[in-house]
Batch of 2 targets.
Target 1
Amino acid sequence: MSQSPATTPPAPAEAPGYNPRNYLNAESGVASWLLTRDHKRIGIMYLVLTTVAFALGGFFAMLLRLELLTPGPTVMSAMSYNRMFTLHGVIMIFLFMIPAIPGVFGNFFLPLMIGARDVAFPKLNLLSVYLYLVGAAIALYGMVHGGADTGWTFYTPYSTTTVTKVVPILLGAFVLGFSSIVTGLNFIVTIHTLRAPGVGWMKMPLFVWSIYATSIIQILATPVLGITLLLVAFEHAFGFGVFDPARGGDPILFQHLFWFYSHPAVYIMVLPAMAVISEAIQAAARKNIFGYRAVAFSSLGIAFVGFFTWGHHLFTSGQSTLDAGIFGVLSMFVGIFTAIKVFNWTATLYRGSVKFTTWFAYFCGFLFFLVFGGMTGIALATVALDVHWQDTYFVVAHFHFIMVGSVIMAWLAALHYWWPKMFGRMYSEGWGLVSSVLIILGFNATFIPQFLLGNYGMPRRYYSYPERFWPLNVASTAGASLLAFGFLIILVYLLVSLKHGRVAGPNPWGSRGYEWMTLSPPPPENFLEQPTYPRPPHDYSDLGAAEVTHAT
Amino acid sequence: MNELMRRILFLPEQGSAYAREVDHLHFFVISVTMLSAALVAMVALAFFIKYRRRSETQSTPHVEPRPIHEVLFIGIPLGFFLLWFAIGFPLFVKLQTPPKEAMDVYVQGKKWMWKFAYPGGPNGMDVLRVPAGRPVRLLITSRDVIHSFYVPDFRIKQDAVPGRYTQTWFTAAAPGRHQVFCAEFCGLGHSAMLAEVIAMEPAEFDAWLAEARRSSQPAAQDSPEDRVDPRASLVEQGRALSAEYGCFKCHTVDGTRHIGPTWLDLYRKQEPLKDGTTVVAEEAYLTESMMDPAARIVAGYQNVMPTYQGRIPGPEIAAIVEFIKVLRTDVVRAEPSKGPVYVPVPGYDPTRAR
Amino acid sequence: MRPEAYVAHHFPNLQQQEHAARLGMWLFLATELLLFGGLFTVYSVYRFLFPETFVAASGLLDVKLGTLNTVVLITSSLTAALGHHLAQHGRGRAAALALAATLVLALGFLVVKAFEWTHDFHEGLLPGRYYSYRELTTPGAPMFFVVYFLLTGLHGLHVILGMCVLGVLMVLAWRGSYDHGYSTPIELGVMYWHLVDLIWIFLYPLLYLI
């Protein structure tokens, strides 16, 4: 490992290649997993659960794209199609995008990165997993039994008057919200109170800063979604009329309440992705980040300003022109923080020592798609342009560029960067590069046609469409098949590596992130001896000096 | 150039001058986006090549940004973003500000069709005829759930919200046909809820409008089942429909008790129900009585009323209810009206300062 | 048990752990405020849209009972705080009695609420489509009662939850768990109770007084 001599974990000559007593095998039996309080095991449980959820949501996506292969009915009825895009959205957002990176990598690496032995409230951490399971079960039950056809946005009055059963899905999402809140609360307290001596606020890994900002949004925004979904459930069940004009209610009030959560929610999804990228770029370039403070504070900036921009989802809804102006200009400001990060990440390569790996390939994909997805977001915020694009495939492409192009690239980068640490094994780099190319190309092929479809005028959530939209839809479906194929390959070689992968050793990448200062896989108590932190994370300025790294 | 960029970006034809202005802003934004993405990619590629790892033990310097870097990283994007906002928002305000001389058309979205009505007639469904070159203001509402009136060729869109009117406007540059989509998910027929704007030569439009108003039948009637003409008195139609549906077999209009409660003074009456509670006979209750008569039966009457669920369409129910509403004993007045009467709200004294 | 025995393996010392526990509870209270915040927003919007009707509907609630409940709840916060103070000084049994008093007052609050709600049901002052009160038929009246029942209902649910938490703490205090200077759980439970009280202090004037 490339560690300075001042750190205390075992010296390279004595460090076991594969840690024989690690968090995976220290205790055995199903009960030891179901009742664990080890943040690393909880991270692995989230990994399994969110991967299953992603597969399910992706399956529905493939069915949607299949239906859209022809202008008229292809493989399903309109009702099935409507329920399917609702399922796709609800599963992907609430069961994957929101919990995945914090639940898996936040849980696994946050304590390791700050030199702690666990999160502040390990039992609450376990509770968050069970809340996830219960919420998922309720929502899936609802989906299977006459489930909702409202879209994941549940706009009233359609959602309060539809014949499909929305209440179970609403309740499921409500419970899932609590899982999110508990995770966020745990992380904030952990960061405040469990940083080891030497890990000051300005020396924390940047991953921690972004997770911190994410957690703030989680605890402040999610309760508002909770109460809003409850109101819709009550109205659907009891006709209270909060959003029903016939009873004095206002349907647009729902939109304001809903987007007050759901806009910050997109930052819950993207900030952890940015957290991963900040770590990965420093390790890939073997260089300290260009502008630590800027990147750290921009995360807080996104969290703060992001709360004041929700009205840009309502430009065509009938809100006042003044509101449109205010929300439009604030949305411009929130884009600046992302711009800062993009420039700082790119500038980190300057005078670095850059090596191309699978996870660096995902960094490249992330960067490119974030610029495009982000800029199209700015374009949408330019009020007059949004009028043409609102509720069309342009918006669908924009958010998929961020959610798939950025967040999922970051998820894959995290998986491939941290796999050796989590499981002590290396995967096949060749297959990794092949699938990264498939994914990046497949992604472009799927979603660039959707930008063009939106420009052309095709609205979203359309079961059938006029013939002139046909070719672009076929192109998009073809791309989606490539994407699916890419994901399947990744699943296979990662699983294979668990048994047959080369032993990784404590630090195959030679990274100086704090989380690498322990064995692979980590012992149950995280460290055999408490590390000390004389230097900031990712400080490679004395590399030429003593040690030989475990080079790959 | 405009045409080239429009085609590359798959934008539909620019059916109005406003559409062209929107597209120009679009081209500006997308060009800068493409350029900056290419720039970032090239810089990253250049750095990657120049600073690729040559040995495992090469060290890297600790580099800190200088203030000028952050100023540029923030200043340049912010400058562009605010510039685009400064162009885009006034353009939006323009869209929200119909000219005074605009011709009004009422648009009503309902599952799953668009209905249009000109003040003074006629009304129509799924086809909106407008004069080219003259501004047209659309006053949009919905009968049931939120829909959205979207004309890609004009780059306009406005949600149709139940319970209120929203507005938008456009000026078709030249005669032509322009497709209309519903852009807010509204159920099974969402993607079938298509309509068309037909821009006509002004003279032709005027001629068509005059002809449509002149014709004795209600022009371009709505769905075949929909016989209510909003131009004519709803009350008159309600009276006719009540007779047609056989309501007068059981309900009287002169106060006489018959098989069912009389309709005279029925509206807003406190009706005591069979189960001991009381209901205020407003539109909701009257409509419910037609759809589900057994739900709440007036005390002293039998449960013999058949249900009209599925037999009477919405507009006809509205007409019948309107008819019931005018059946009040105090409607017949010998002397002229003395003006509106304000009923005090219990517990609220407007003269008391709060 | 000695306080040091309560330190979990991942905390360096007791002070750190107690600090973390308090911070965690403050964050949780923040989430509760935002949960109610959504309902307060709904109240504000409809009050703005139906000003006179909301005033009139508010007049139909029983201010005397509302005031009584406010006094009861504030007093219960006092007894709860007293309970924590006693526990901090190692007087577990006295603390348990103070918490018992809190529970009794809380129960009183719920009983009064039950009276109010029953009266409202009889009068027809019900939410949304169930509203059937004859003397106030202007639009917005059913909406007032939607907001009223949702706010007081959600608050009542939190009262019941708080009572369960305080009940458990009371039993543990009686059994001597907090006799040796470690009283953080009681502090956290009492903090939650104060939040329940605080929310009512906002509900009361908005629903009853204006």
Note: The first strand of chain B starts at residue 103 and ends at 110.
Target 2
Amino acid sequence: MPKREGPPTFPEANREEPSELLRELVAHLRQNRTQLREEWVVRITETRLLTAMTKEEIFAEATSVYDSYVEALETEAFEALQAYARNLSERIIPRGVETHEVVGIVLLLRDVLARSLFAKYQTDFKKLNRILDAYEPAANRIANTVAVGFVQERERVIRQQQEAIRELSTPVLQVRERLLILPIIGVIDPQRARQLTEQLLRGIRTNRAKVVVIDITGVAAMDLTVANNLVQTVEASRLLGATVIVTGLSPEIAQTLVTIGVDLGKMNTVGDLQGGIEQAERLLGYKVEKLAEPR
Amino acid sequence: MEVPILKQGAFLIATFQAALSDADLNQLRMGLVQQVVKFRSRAVIVDVTAMDVMDSFASRTLREIAHMIRLRGAETVIVGIQPEVAFAMVQLGLTLEGVATALDLEEGLAYLNDKFRTAN
């Protein structure tokens, strides 16, 4: 019986440890750094990513990303990588770089490096497989880490901006002794309504206000929750000894309040802000007299 | 816990301490009205500046005190409700409706002096 001959087998090399493999491929990536980085930048430009940045900027960032990528492969220090990603994001988000661009360039780098590994180990298929076994999980984890870091930074920026907008948009203004004006503009969600009330109450105490004019000319629409918040604000202000005058109710909001059944007897309302201030002045015992014509 | 009640001319000033038990509040209700009768006071100022929390029992007691004192022909003013306390109260629907309020002792006295001056 002729001996069945299988395909020729190479002598099995000693199985390397995964960490050895990792070291080997990291060394390769470092050695070919210049060439691989260049290849990557070309791919980035070809795919039209990072269009908000100049060539020089892309090159500079690419260098630091490449080095961090390879270092992460080597050290498996993913916290450090995430910190780096957030840092990078802090720099590039203001430039208008989007999430898909960041994910895109990291995946491109992964591919460029993978191709280079194919090229190097193409004669030793078994070794290539082992190298990829070591490379792929690490590379995927890197892509994931960078993307998550970027998104976290974006969310942080958005939260910060929302907070700033909220603060800016609820100024409590003292226009006379004992008289505060709170002009409300825009959309009031429950969180903002709460913040408004707290800010107003603190303002009443600090300024020893006896009258508050809340102007809602700039408020587009009001639902039950917000209407109730307004009533509560009026009631809480009274507990601090201040009278509230609400001005600027649009016909729509007036309709809403009536429909909802808000007890308008509890609310002191005047048509517009000017009227509200005039009434407030009367309540406080001011009389405003015109002495001369404006020049 | 005894709540100090001071006489200031025609007015009485009761200063609430931080943590008053229900028993304290009940005792105070009786005590204040008795003092109003004894001194023939025209008004009572209840200073709750030290209270960092106001529950429904305390709120109801304050309204009852004001009501009983009005039956004696006298006025009640609650002063010193803190912003956080006011906020919490209105969320629970405790509005102290029908009871006069002022920012602090100074404002409370100004309110009463104003009221009695215009009345006379």
Note: The radius of gyration of chain A is 33 Å.
